[in-house]
Amino acid sequence: MMNVLASQQAIDWAYLVAVVLFVLALKWLSSPTTARHGVLAGEIGAALAVIATLADPEVVQYKWIIIALIIGAGVGIPLGMVKITAVPQRTALSHAFGALSAAMIGIAEYYVGVPHVTRFGMGEIGLEVIIGSLTFTGSLIAAGKLQEILPQRPITYRGQNIVSLSVLGAAILMAVALVINPNHTFLFPCMVGMALIFGVLLVTPIGGADMPTVISLLNSYAGFSAALLGFVLNSKVLVVAGALDGSSGFILSVIMCKAMNRSFTNVMFGAFGQVQASAAGAAEERTVRSASPEEAAGILAAASRVVIVPGYGMAVAQAQHKVRELFDALSKKGVDVSFGIHPVAGRMPGHMNVLLAEADIPYDKLREMDDVNSDLPQTDVALVIGANDVTNPAARTDSGSPIYGMPILDVDKARTVMVIKRSMNPGFAGIDNPLYYFDKTLMLFGDAKGFVSDIVRELAGGASH
Amino acid sequence: MPSDFMSNLYVFILAGFVGFEVIKRVSPLLHTPLMSLTNALDAIVVVAAIIIAGRHETPLSTVLGAVAVAASFSNMVGGFFITDRMLRMFKTGRPPK
What we know:
The complex is a heterodimer. By secondary structure, chain A is of the alpha/beta class. Chain A has helices spanning 2-28, 35-54, 63-80, 87-113, 119-146, 160-180, 187-203, 211-233, 236-259, 264-270, 276-279, 293-302, 312-316, 320-332, 351-358, 369-375, 394-397, 448-460; strands at 289-290, 305-310, 336-341, 366-368, 381-385, 416-421, 441-445. Chain B has one domain. Chain B has four helices and no strands.
């Protein structure tokens, strides 16, 4: 007995150390210079906690644990090696796994505990399992959309919000009935089923453009379901890890919403991308100025300060390595080149930074929106590659525009604007961009990768004019 | 209301504040690694899964526990791995050629 007590204490200490290391891990992530220490701290903390738990005398059978650990590692390692463009769907999938795990444990606790589950305990389990289940299916749908297995556009129908909320309401009612009498075991699987369906209904109507927000929200749900599980199991290490993950997801969701000038309710129930489809096509014939790679190279080489504004279109065209070559070529000529990164550039928070870092662009050249905006009026050339809405001045000026009020990169304030674009077709959200018709704007028509390499070639060869 | 609940609530709220203050300071540059790292940390749920799977109470709880172990351990391994992989890509100024 003495032995059991001592080992329980050792486990508690291991968990405490793990929690401290987790907080340090996030603290060190504040700067790229210390960030990798953060990962190491997290790894040590997690390893300590896992080893201590494996030594717990409560664990009497190891067969299934070992098999599951091997399967987990077998799935996790390949998922850690995906391409950077695929990181958003990997992340969504990992939210799904995290939520699945939390839901499974909650369900097991219920069935092991019944008929001795208290009403209070039932309330905790009910809430935990509902959030875990809806996050599981919701994240799977998000991953499917990001992987483009499922249609990216929002899928909507009349009365959708009423149907969705009724399903959630039904799940909550069943949870309440279970709290009143936890021994109504037949209600439990119905409650789980309703929560699973609600997760699907929740994410299906949300369009691809809103994925950064959705992914952050699901992140926060996954965290809170883990924290709730900590309440169910009376495990402080889960409460802390879940609270950290949950607050991180929450902060990111708020940042993403602000960056799109949207509210949570609007993202969840607004089905963005649907409304604008009708607004497109209204653009009458207006004149645009276009330029060849040779002309573009000449202007860039003569500039002293250039800001490149990349969007997800750049990553789709696999142009980031060519952009790096452009960066190198211009830097060598003494041009000050930096990158203006909009918070929603890419498909998840911070995605564009990782894509550019992967292409070996120094991170001190990746600048935040506010920082770049203060410099754009003194910038000779703003070069927009694969971005559209985040540069649309209508967001500042046209109160009728669907993106009115959204913070943008003020590229129109630079002396010359160059936009690499395939054609004049309106972009993903179908919103016309007045930027393209300005006198100072030069349209560079073509594929991002091809056009940038043409510019690089011109800069290398005949830059003497 | 069980006393455990209150102490857990204290921990939850304080950890939430700590998380908020610490994460607020993470540069937007690193928001993608932040999400994959918090995901890996959240996978600490695996310790609860190990207990459920290893206590050997009912076949159902063992199966559910084992699924939970596999799901959360994959997040733990994959999350730390990909976070470190991404962070290694962030370099400051390039060496002159």
